[in-house]
Structure formats: C-alpha cells, structure tokens
Amino acid sequence: MTNFLKVSIFSILMVGAFWGYSNFGIPTIKPAPPPVEEKLDLGAMTMDQFIALGGKIYNGKGTCTLCHNSMGRAPMLDTIGAKAEEHMKDARYKGTAKTVEEYIHEAMVKPSAYVVSGFGKAGTNDTESPMPDVTGGGIGLNEAELAAVIAYLQDSGGAEVTVAIPAMPAAGEEAPKAEEAAPLKTAEEVIAKYTCGMCHKILDQTGALGPDLTKIGAKQSKEYLRQAVLDPDAVIAKGFAGGMMPKTYGEQLKAQELELLVNYMAGLK
Q1: Burial 137-174 (b: 16+ CB within 10 A, else e)
Q2: Whole-model pTM?
Q3: Cβ(225)–Cβ(265) below 8 Å
Q4: What band does 34 get if pLDDT is binned at 50, 70 and 90?
Q5: Is residue 49 exposed (0-12), middle (13-18) or buried (19+ Cβ within 10 Å)?
Q6: Across-strand partners of 145?
Q7: Is 77:157 a contact under the CB 8 Å cutoff?
Q8: Counting C-beta atoms within 10 Å of the first and last residue's C-beta, which end of the chain has fewer, N or C?
Q9: Cα separation of 79 and 87, whole Å?
C-alpha cells in the first residue's frame, strides 16, 4: 500500500511538472495571420504601376510566355505596336479594330480575327488560332486585367500607351456580379471551354506543351487524373517542367465538370 501511494504521488508530481513546463516553460509561438487576398486599388495607381501590373499578369496569371517566347510557338510581341498597324491593313484581317489598343484587345479575346502566317491551328491554313480567349477557360482575365496587359504590351512594344486606368466603383456601389453559368454537359464541352488542347494532345487538338493525353487512361488512375487537374504540380510528368499548368481549375471547374473530364480521360486507352 505504501509503495502504491509513493508511485501515485510521484506520478502526480511528474504530470504536474510536465504540465507546468509545457504551459509556462516553453515560449509561446504565435502563428502568422492568414494571408489577405490582394485587392487592387486602381484609383490610387499611377500609369507606371498599372503597366507593371500588366507585366505581372502577362508573365504570371495570363500564362502568355508559355507560347510567346523564343521557342517560336507563337509570335513575339516586342514590336506589337508596329505589327498591329500592318495586320489591320492585311487582306486576311477579319476584325473590326481601328487602333493599336483595340487590336491588342481583340487579339486576346478573338484571336482568330487575325492569325500570323505559320502560327495557325494545324489544317486551318492560318485561319484559326490555337490561342484561347483569355477571358475564359483556365486564364479568366477580367476587363481591368486586360487593360493592364494592353498597357504593358503597348509600352514594351514601342507603341504609345493609350489605355485609361479603369475607374473604381463609387463608394458603396458593388461591381455587377456575373450570372453563374449552368454546368457543362459533356467532356468535349469542358475540354473546349478550358482550352485543354492548347497544351495537350486530346480530342482533335495537337498541343505539345504538356503530356499527350490520347491514351492517358491506360497509364493513370482516376485519382491521379483528378489530382493532376486540381494540383498540377503535385506530380510532374517526366520530360516536362512544373509551373506550366494553371492551378485555378479547382476553383473554376464545377464538380460535375471535373468528373466528366476525369471519366473521359480515364477512358482514353
């Protein structure tokens, strides 16, 4: 009985000692506050800052440099100011732009209005561009971001910067919210909307920036394919670099659309 009491008291003292040390002896580490979503204060921006924002989008979210680079997948844009004037006078031009600013905007949202010779989609005789509308799919630039990229391209391409910084909504006024679209009904519609074929071989598309998906279902499971869409840098396919595929599909794709795409790819064998 005496030993039992000794052991019990010793245990209580040890537990108390550990409790005291863990609560008072170890310095408290306060976690960093959660990151705050960046909000653009367009009303306080100078034109130089707006142009710099355009450069950040061009090299980042816009994924423009995946194709517009020295590898020759798309035309270089370092002389876009002079080239825009030439293209608008070309007999093959199908757009409606009258100024360099309008031409660059049109080239981003209606890229097939003019296709530079040699850069069209295969089999279209340079009448259809492989470039997607950058306001949709996995890029999704809004009007302010489009304007910033135009300002950047004008500035870096030797043209006069004519873009006006968009006005901020008045105090207490909210920007209009776009009506949510109904889910797409087929995998083909998902692939077309999110321009998967720009980088991958899939359906009748011949993209070469990413892995060939024409028989991906014979190699990978649905779990792998789902992860590859939602977290593309989790596993990098051999022979390809990380950081190329947008990481926003998890936010843009509806659950039904994601499963349509995954099931379709799993069936490619």
Answers
A1: bbbbbeebbbbbbbbbbbbbbebebebebbeeeeeeee
A2: 0.66
A3: yes
A4: very low
A5: middle
A6: none
A7: yes
A8: N
A9: 12
What pLDDT, on the 0 to 100 scale, is given for residue 31? 38
Rg of the chain over Cα atoms, rounded to whole angstroms, equals 27
E strand spans, the chain: 201-202, 205-206
Q: Can you tell me the distance from the alpha carbon of 92 to that of 21, in angstroms, rounded to the nearest whole number? A: 79
**β 205-206/201-202 pair status:** antiparallel
Q: Name residue 201's beta-bridge partners.
A: 206
**pLDDT value of residue 161:** 94
The C-alpha atoms of residue 132 and residue 109 are separated, in whole angstroms, by 8
Name the residue among 199, 177, 179, 197 with its Cα closest to residue 188: 197
Report the C-alpha gap between 171 and 162 in whole angstroms.
27
Specify the amino acid at residue 230.
Answer: L
| 3-state helix, strand and coil shares in percent for the chain, rounded to the nearest 5 | 45, 0, 55
d(CA 257, CA 269) in angstroms, rounded, equals 21
Can you tell me the distance from the alpha carbon of 261 to that of 224, in angstroms, rounded to the nearest whole number?
13
Give the three-class secondary structure for 116: coil
Strand partners, 206: 201
**Higher per-residue pLDDT: 227 or 249:** 227
Query: What is the per-residue pLDDT across 121-153, written as a single tens digit (0 to 9) for each?
Result: 878 899 988 888 898 877 888 999 999 999 999
Q: What is the residue whose two structure tokens read 């391209």?
A: 153
Domains, the chain, in order of start with CATH, read 44-156 (1.10.760.10), 187-266 (1.10.760.10)
Is 197:206 a contact under the CB 8 Å cutoff? yes
Can you tell me whether residue 217 is helix, strand or coil?
Answer: helix
